[in-house]
Fold these 3 entries.
Entry 1:
Amino acid sequence: MDDGEPRWLNAEEREAWLTWIAATSLLDAALDRQMQRDAGMPMAYYQILVMLSENADRTLRMGVLAERTQSSHSRMSHAVARLEERGWVRRHTCDHDRRQTFATLTDEGFAVLAAAAPGHVATVRKYLFDRLTPEQVEQLTAITDRIRTGLTSEFTDPTEPARQLGLS
Amino acid sequence: MDDGEPRWLNAEEREAWLTWIAATSLLDAALDRQMQRDAGMPMAYYQILVMLSENADRTLRMGVLAERTQSSHSRMSHAVARLEERGWVRRHTCDHDRRQTFATLTDEGFAVLAAAAPGHVATVRKYLFDRLTPEQVEQLTAITDRIRTGLTSEFTDPTEPARQLGLS
C-alpha cells in the first residue's frame, strides 16, 4: 500500500463504488424502518432472534453471536439485555463452564420472530429480488461470494488445515 | 403484503441474500477497522469529511449531511460535534437564515482527509475491485443501480414533475 502513488479508482470503479454505498445504505435503512414500524424493533434485534432460532436448541454463546454480527461484545451484551427485558431471550451460564454466557430464544421470542418474518421477507423481495432478473441474482451471488471469501480468508491462517492434518 | 401466504425466498434467493449480508457487513467492518487503525476515526467520520470536501466551499447544511448518510439529525449533530472538537470541522449559521446550521471542513480537516484517503482506497481496492473482473464490476454497478433506484423512487412523488410543470 505504501510503495508509491496510490492507485485511485478509475471512472467505472468510482461509479460502482458510489452506487454500492448508496444501495447498501439505503437498503439497510429501509429494512430497519420497516422492522421498527411493523415489529417495534431494530434490524439488529431481528438478526439476533434469527441466529438463535437457527440452532437446534435455540441457543448460542454470546461470543459467537457477537462474532457473527460483526459486533463488539459490549454492544451485543447491551442488545441481548434489551431482548431479555422484553422476555424474548434468556441469558444463562452452563454448569460445566461458568465463564461462558449463553443466550436462548424463548417461546415468546420465537413467536415474535415468526410474526415479524413475513413483513421482512416481503421488504427484501420488494427492494432486492423483485428489482433483479434471475441472471442478475446469480451474478450478484457470485460477486458477493468473491468479496466475502476475500474478507474471511484474511482472518484465517492458510497453513491451519495442513497443520491440523499433521502436514506442517 | 398481507394478501395470503408470504412469498418466502427460494434456495437461490436465500443464498444470494445470506451472501449479500455477509459481504456487506464484513466489508463495512474491514473498512472501519482500517480507518480506525490508520487514521484514528470511524468510517462515519471519514464519510462526513468526504461529503464536505466535495462541495465548492467545503460546506453543507447539517440536514443535508444527515440525509445523505441515512443518519438521524441527533446522530449527525453528535458526530459533527466530535469532529469540531478535533478542529476538522466548524459549525456556523448563515446571516440570512439563522435557523440553518452549516458545517464547513477546515484546512486541518482537509489535510486529515487527504492523508487518510490512500489507505482507504487501497482497502476498497483490495477487498472489492481486486477480487472482481471488469465484467463483474459492470454487472455490480447495474445491479446496485437497480436497487438504489427502487429505494430512491419510493420517497419521491411520481406526479411531482408534472405538477411543477402545471400539467396536473
Entry 2:
Amino acid sequence: MRRLDQIAATATFVDGRVSNPHNTTKDNLQIDHTTDIYKESTQLLLQALLRNEEVRNFAFIQRVAPPLMCRYQPKMKYGKHPDVAFLPMQPTPMRSDLSCTIFIADPSTYEGGELTIHLGSKPVSIKGKRGAAVFYPSTTIHEVLPVTSGERLVAITFIESQICDEKKRDLLYTLNEVAALEGLNMEWDNRVRLEHVRHSLHRMWSTS
Amino acid sequence: MRRLDQIAATATFVDGRVSNPHNTTKDNLQIDHTTDIYKESTQLLLQALLRNEEVRNFAFIQRVAPPLMCRYQPKMKYGKHPDVAFLPMQPTPMRSDLSCTIFIADPSTYEGGELTIHLGSKPVSIKGKRGAAVFYPSTTIHEVLPVTSGERLVAITFIESQICDEKKRDLLYTLNEVAALEGLNMEWDNRVRLEHVRHSLHRMWSTS
Amino acid sequence: MRRLDQIAATATFVDGRVSNPHNTTKDNLQIDHTTDIYKESTQLLLQALLRNEEVRNFAFIQRVAPPLMCRYQPKMKYGKHPDVAFLPMQPTPMRSDLSCTIFIADPSTYEGGELTIHLGSKPVSIKGKRGAAVFYPSTTIHEVLPVTSGERLVAITFIESQICDEKKRDLLYTLNEVAALEGLNMEWDNRVRLEHVRHSLHRMWSTS
Amino acid sequence: MRRLDQIAATATFVDGRVSNPHNTTKDNLQIDHTTDIYKESTQLLLQALLRNEEVRNFAFIQRVAPPLMCRYQPKMKYGKHPDVAFLPMQPTPMRSDLSCTIFIADPSTYEGGELTIHLGSKPVSIKGKRGAAVFYPSTTIHEVLPVTSGERLVAITFIESQICDEKKRDLLYTLNEVAALEGLNMEWDNRVRLEHVRHSLHRMWSTS
Amino acid sequence: MRRLDQIAATATFVDGRVSNPHNTTKDNLQIDHTTDIYKESTQLLLQALLRNEEVRNFAFIQRVAPPLMCRYQPKMKYGKHPDVAFLPMQPTPMRSDLSCTIFIADPSTYEGGELTIHLGSKPVSIKGKRGAAVFYPSTTIHEVLPVTSGERLVAITFIESQICDEKKRDLLYTLNEVAALEGLNMEWDNRVRLEHVRHSLHRMWSTS
Amino acid sequence: MRRLDQIAATATFVDGRVSNPHNTTKDNLQIDHTTDIYKESTQLLLQALLRNEEVRNFAFIQRVAPPLMCRYQPKMKYGKHPDVAFLPMQPTPMRSDLSCTIFIADPSTYEGGELTIHLGSKPVSIKGKRGAAVFYPSTTIHEVLPVTSGERLVAITFIESQICDEKKRDLLYTLNEVAALEGLNMEWDNRVRLEHVRHSLHRMWSTS
C-alpha cells in the first residue's frame, strides 16, 4: 500500500472522461496509462488481488483487466451508470462480469465519495477501508457520490469470470463452501460424489 | 401383480403396430385400449409406479402416460428404435423424457425377449424380475430381442420429468442423495444452504 | 369454406379494438365472441388447420388459440405491431409462438389489405388465396395495409409450439424433411441413428 | 380485509407442520384446508392479489397456488429454510418461482415475527402493513422470527411465473417500465421496435 | 480500393479448392496466401472493415479472420453450401458466426456471379457495389452463380461475434438503435435503466 | 512409442501429488515438468493425438493440455475422483471437457492398474493396449486400481472441446457420421441441407 501511496503522489493523473466520453456525469481523474509508473501500479494491484483466496473462490477468474488508479478531488463524482459488458483488450475484447473497487485512501481522510450500488429496491452505500475491495456485477447501476472534502483514491478493475451468470456463480460458491466446511466429516464416497456435482456444475456453467 | 395376471389372461390384445405404424420392425401385441379392463390395468400399474419412492426421487415426475400392457409371443420382437419425444395426449401433447418397462411375467417363463439398450459403445441387455421396472431416456435407441419360447408380458409407460435433461436430473439426484445421507451430520446452516442450492437447481433446470 | 362464408354473412361483428385497446392503429371488425355462431366458426377453422400435415410438421403444435374471424372494410387497417407473447387463456396463459392468418375472402374481391411482415431489411407483402394460411413468429413486426375497396375477410389464430425458438424449429423441420426424403435409401442402422438425433433434438429443444 | 378477520376468528387452525413435516424448526398454525371457510379465504385472497396491477407487471403470472392463512402465536416461529421448487398440485405439479407473504394483522398488534430474508450478505427484515404483500424468489433462504407478544396473522402463496429466472424477469420488468414511461414520447417506429424487443424477450425467456 | 486493384492485378491467384477440397462445386481462384502481397491485402481489407461503425454496431466483433481476395473468371462459380462453424486458426480455432463478402470489382464490369443466399423460402441475390460489404450467418446456405462475362473480384472474411445467436444479436442491435435515437429525450434515470438492460443482455448473451 | 519408452527410462519422475495436493488417495509418479525431456515427450504425445482422425471427429478440439507421463509402480494407485473443471494455463485457464489416458506400457507387462470409470450404475474397467487412448468427460468419477506387479506407464491429457456438453457433442458426432456414410447417396440439395443443420448445431452448441 505504501508504494501505491508514493505512486499516487508522483504519477500524472488525467481527466477520467477519456475512458467513457459518452457519460457526461463522469468527473474524476485517472492515472496516465501511457507512463511506466502506471505499469508498476497495475502489477502491484493485480498481485494483491490474486493473492486473496476469498476473491479467487467466488470470482472464478478467467481474465482480469489491469487495475486503474482513480482520484476524486472535492466536488468530483461519477453519476449513475452501469459498466459496459465488453472492454477493448488484446488479443480479443474481454467480457466484464465483475467490477471491482479497491479502496486505497483511508476513509477517514475524505468525506462523501461513497460508492453507491443500486441493486434491488434500496441503494447500498459503501466506503471501504484502506485495502478493502468491493465487487458487484458489472452491469449493475452504480455511482460515486460527490466528494465533499479530502481526496478519494481508489483503483478499479474488471474481471471476466469462468461463470458469466451471477446466480450460478453464487450457487457454486455456496456449494463449494458447504463442501469445504462439511466435506471432512462425510463418508469418502459422498464427498467424491459432491465433488463430481461441483466440478460438473463448474464446467457446465462456463457456457450457459 | 396377481390381478394383472388375471387381466392379462382375460383381456383382448391387439396388434401393437397400431401405436407405431411407421416402424416395420415392431411385432407384438398390446391390450385393447378401448375396453374397461384396460382402464383398470392402467390404474393398478400407475399406483404401483407412484408408490415407489426411488422412482419419485430420480424421475422428478411431472406427468405419466397410462401404462400399456404388451405381450410378446414366440418370434415376436421390436427392432431398434428410439421412442418419440412427444405423445399425443389430452389436454396437450406430453413430452416423454423417460421410457419405462415394467416386467410382469417371471423371466424364467420365457426365453429371449431381452430389452436391449444402445447407450454408448456397448449394448446393455435386461430381463427384469417380476415387478421390476427399468427406465431409460426415451430417445435412446433400444429394442426387444425376439422371444424364442414362452411369453414375455410387460407394461410400458412414459414420464415427462420436471427436468428434461438427463445429465441435470442425475446431478440433482446425486446432490439430493448426498444431502439425505450426510445432512443430519451437518451444521444447521450448512444444511439449509445445501437445501437452497438443491431447490434452486430444481427450479432453474425445469426450463433449461 | 362455404359455411364460413355463411357465418361471415350472418354473424355479428364488433370493433376489433376490444382485443387490443392499447393499439390506436387498429381499425377492423371481429366476430362477436359471445355468440354460438362464433363457437361454430372456431371449430371449423381449427379442424381445417389441424388437418393440414404441412402445418403439423413445421409448427410442432402444443396448443392453438380459437381462430377469430376478422373483417376489414374499406379504409380499415391494422398498423405496425408485434403480437403479444402470452394470451390470457384457461386454465393457464398460452404462449404465442406463431401467429397465423387464414385468408377467407378471395383476393380478387378486395383491393389493398396486404398482410405486410417486417422481417430483416425488406418488408414482405402477402395477399393469400382463399383457404391459404400464412405463419410468422408472433413477435415479428407486421401490419395490415388499408383496404381500398371490397372487404378483406380472414381468420387469425395463435400457436404455442413445442419448440419456442424459430431457429431450432426450422433446423428440426429441415432434418425431418431430409429424413423423410432420404431415409428409405439409408441403411437401417443409419436411419435409426438419424431418428435418435431428431427425437433427441425435439425433446431437448422443448425447454431451451 | 374485514371478512378475512372474521374468517381468522372463526376458522379452525391446525399445526403447520402438516405441510412441511421435514422441517423441525417450523412452529405455526395454518387454516384447516378441509373446510369450506378455507375455500372462501383462498378466493378472497386470490382476487385481492390479482387485482394488483403492480403484481401482475413484475410477476408474469402463469399459475398461483391457493393462498393459505397462517397464524403465529407467542413463541411461534419458522426457522431458516428455502421453499421447495415444486408443489404437488392438480393436474400437474406447480413450479414455485415466487413466494408471497400477505400481511393481514396490523404490525402494531404483535411484536417479533419479522419475515427475514437472507439475500446476499445482509439479512433483510420485513414487517408489512395490513394488506401489504412481499415477494421473493421461492428458493431464497428466509425465516419468521419468534413472535414475542400478540398474534401474527398472514397468508402465504406461491406463484409460477412465465419467466422462471429472476434476473430475466427483472430485466423485462425494467424494460417494460421504461417503455411505459417514455413510449409516448418516442417516434412510433421506435416505440414499435421496442415493443418487438420486449415481446420477443418475454417469449424467449419463458423457456430458458 | 485502388491499392486493392493493383494487388489484384499483380498478385498470384491459386485454385480456390485448396480451402474447401470436399466441395466439388467450388470453382474459383484465391490469392496465394504464402506471399507478402497477401498480407498487405488482408491488412487493407481488415482496416476498412473495422473503420465502419455500422459493422461494429451490429456484429459485436470478437475476432475476425484475415480477409481473402477471390476472383471468379467466366464460367467460375461456387455451388450451394453453408460455411463451416469453426475455422482452423492460431492460437485456437475460431467460430465463424458471420460470413462477409466485400465487393471489389464494380458490378458493371461483369455479368452473372450473384451471391445468392437461401434464407427462408425465397433466395435473395446480391451484386454489391464496389466497396460494399454483405453479411449473413455463416451456416446459411448460399452460392455464387456462374460468371458469364467479365471478372468478379471480391474478398471474403469471417467474424466471431460476442453474441453467437443471430436472433439475440438482432434484438440487442435494435435495442441499441432505439436507445441511440430516443435516449437523449428520456429522463436520465430511464436512460440509465435502459443502459442497464442493454449491457446486461450483451453480457448474458455472450454465453447462451 | 519407442522414443517414449526411452524417455520413460531416462527421465526423472517425481511424486504425483504435486499436481493434486488435496487428494490423499493419489499415489503415483509423474515426469518432472521442469526438464527438457518433458517438453519432448509432450510434443510427441500431442502430435500422436492430433494425427488421429477419429479423435478429431468426436472431440471437436479447441485446446489441449500438454500430455503428462505418469508411472504407477507396485502398490501405487489413484483413488476415486473427478478431474477439475478448469486447469491453470497460459494465457487463460483452460476448461477440461474430456480427460484422456494414453496407454504406453503393454498391458501384459503389469497386473492391476485398471482405469475404472464410474458412469451410470456399473463401473467400467479398462486396460488399454499399447498406444490406445481412452476418453471420458473430465468430471466423471474415475480411479486407477492398485498395480500389483510390473509398472503401469501412461500419459494423461485434457481437452477443451468446442462443445462443452457431452450429450450435444455425441448428437453432432452421430449426425456427422450418418452424413459421412449416407451423404454420397443423397440428392445434392438434401445433402447441403443436412450440412446446414450440422454446421448450425456446431456453431449454436459452442455456447450453450
Entry 3:
Amino acid sequence: MKFASLKHPTNRDGVLHLVDRKLQSAVDVSDIAPTLQFALEHWAALERKLLDEYESLECGTDRPVIDFAKALDDGLVAAPLPRTYQWLDGSAYLSHVERVRRARGDKVPESFYHDPLMYQGGGDAMMGPRDDLECLSEDWGIDLEGEVGVITGDVKMGASPAEAAAAVRLVVLINDVSYRKLIPGELAKGFGFVNSKGLNALSPVAVTPDELGSAWCDQKGAGKLDYRLICHVREKWFGNPNAADDMTFSLFDLVSHAARTRPLKAGALIGSGTVSNHDVATGYACIMEKRLVEQVELGAAKEDFLRFGDSVEIDMFDHQGETIFGAIKNRVTKAGAN
Amino acid sequence: MKFASLKHPTNRDGVLHLVDRKLQSAVDVSDIAPTLQFALEHWAALERKLLDEYESLECGTDRPVIDFAKALDDGLVAAPLPRTYQWLDGSAYLSHVERVRRARGDKVPESFYHDPLMYQGGGDAMMGPRDDLECLSEDWGIDLEGEVGVITGDVKMGASPAEAAAAVRLVVLINDVSYRKLIPGELAKGFGFVNSKGLNALSPVAVTPDELGSAWCDQKGAGKLDYRLICHVREKWFGNPNAADDMTFSLFDLVSHAARTRPLKAGALIGSGTVSNHDVATGYACIMEKRLVEQVELGAAKEDFLRFGDSVEIDMFDHQGETIFGAIKNRVTKAGAN
C-alpha cells in the first residue's frame, strides 16, 4: 500500500488517503482510519480493509478518485505522517562519518562499527514534500540530508532486530534538514542537536515494505533498501548513492537500538542517517560531505550551503524507472517573507 | 484550571477531565475537548468553556463528579498529557552542572551562563503519576530527576522570552528518568541521549499559570516557580530545593531557546532540568547529585541508585500546605515481571 495525508485546514494530522502504485490517483480512506497515526495504532484491525481499498484503487473503485499528481503539484499534500511522537535518526553509513573525521584529521572510533550513533529529533511538524524550508538566516549553513526511514507499530523494550523487523509498517524518504554552522557549537555543549536541526520533510507517500519487492531484505541484508537515492541541489545532479551499500547498521538494527531501554510506540519514525557510499563517484546526499571531500582533495570547500531561493530534490526509482515514494522538493525561503 | 487525563483502554491520549483545586473531584469534559492535546490546539476557542466548567466544579456542577483522589490511588490517572510531539529538557540550574563538573575536577564553561543546555527527548509515552518505572536492568543506574515543566501552545520560530511567555498554557511537574551508568558512554558518542533516558512521569494534574498566583512570575523573575520541590527517595526525605532559586534560565528563556530555529507546535513540553540549589541543606532532586557531593566531601559516593522495588516521590505545596499538582510516585519494577 501507498499512503498519503492531504492537508486539512484544522486537522494537523491531515486526511488519510491511499495512492495508486504510480502516484497518479488517490482515494480518501478517512472513514476507515481518519489519520495515518490512527491506522498505525489499529493496524491489525484495519490492514485488511485498507488493503481491499488499495486493490480496488488499482482495479476500479466506487470511491471518488482525486488527481494525486495535481494535488502534489498544488502543494495540497502533507507529509504522510504530518507529525510524530518519536523521531530518532541513526547514522548508519560510516563513509559519511569517516569523511567528517578525516577532514579534521581524526579516525572513526572502533566502537562506531558495532554501536550505532543515533540522535533524538523533534517530530511535532514534518514538512510536506513540496513545502518551503523556512529559515530566519542563511548564516545557519542550511543543508539537506537525504535518508531512508521506517515508521513502526509498537516495539517492546529490548526488542531484537528480528522483533523490530516485525514491527516495521512503512518505509519513507526523509529530508533531514541540518544547520551546519550551528552544529559545532551545539555539539560542543554535549547534549546533541536542538537548534541545529530544522523541520524535516517526508516524501509524498509512505509505502508498506511489500511494495519494495526484492529490493527490501534482499541479499544485501534485511532492513536495507537496495535502490539509489537520487539527490539534486540547485536543480543539478548531486548524488545517487545506493541506500543498501556501505550501510553498517540496517534499519532493523536501528529500531532495535532505539528500543534498548524503552518501548517505542506506534508511529515512531526511525531514520537511516544521510545515505553515503565509499565510492565518491556516487556523489552525495548532503552538501557538507561534498565540502569535506573538497577540503581534503582541493584544499578548500567549494560547494556552498543553501541560500534563499535554492532548492533540493530527493527521489528514488524502481527498476522500471518509476518513482516509488514521489519526490521531495523543498525550496529555501526566508521565514516571514511571505 | 487543573487538568487531568484518565486512562482509556484504546485511546492513548486518555480522556480529558477538569479537577478541583484540592484534587478531590473531577468532571469529564471530553465533550468540550476529547484530549488535552485537542484543547491545546483549540485553546482560544475552548478556554472560556473550560473555565466555566472549572468554576462550576468548584461551586456546584450538573455533571457527574468522580472521586479523583480515589482514581489516582487506583492507578486510573494517566499523565495529563499522555504523549507529546515535542519534549525538550533544559538544564537551568547550574548548581547541578557545577557539581557534575567539580566532581571531575572541571569548571563550568562561561558560555553555560548565557547559552542554555538543552536536550531533545522522546515524548511518545509519558508515565502516569503512579505508574511503575519498568526497567530491564538495575545496572543502568536508575535515577529520578525532579523538574518543573511548561506545556505550550504554538510558538513561532525566533520567539522572544516574552512571546514564549504568552504561549505558555500549563505548568506541570516531571520525573525525568535517567539511566546514569549509560550516560557517559552515550554522551561520548556526541549525539546526546537516547538509551540513557527512560520514559518520564508527569504529575497528576497540569495547571494554568493563574493557579500559581504570585509564586509564578514574582520578584524572583518571570517564568520561575517560587515553591519548593519536595522529593522523597525510598520513602525518605531527599530534598526540597526551591524551584525559583539559583535558576539561571527561566522557563520562558528555555522556550525561546527551543524555538530559535524552528517553530514549536501546540502541546510542546519544555522542562527546567533537575531543580537544584547551591545550598546543600536543601538536599537534591536526583540521586547523582547527592553522590557527586559525597564523592567530593566523603571521598566516595554512598547513596545507591534505584533498585527494583525502590520508590520515588515528587510533590510541591502552596503556602497553605496544599499540593498543587498532586504527587508523582513511581516504583521501579523489572519489565516483564508482571
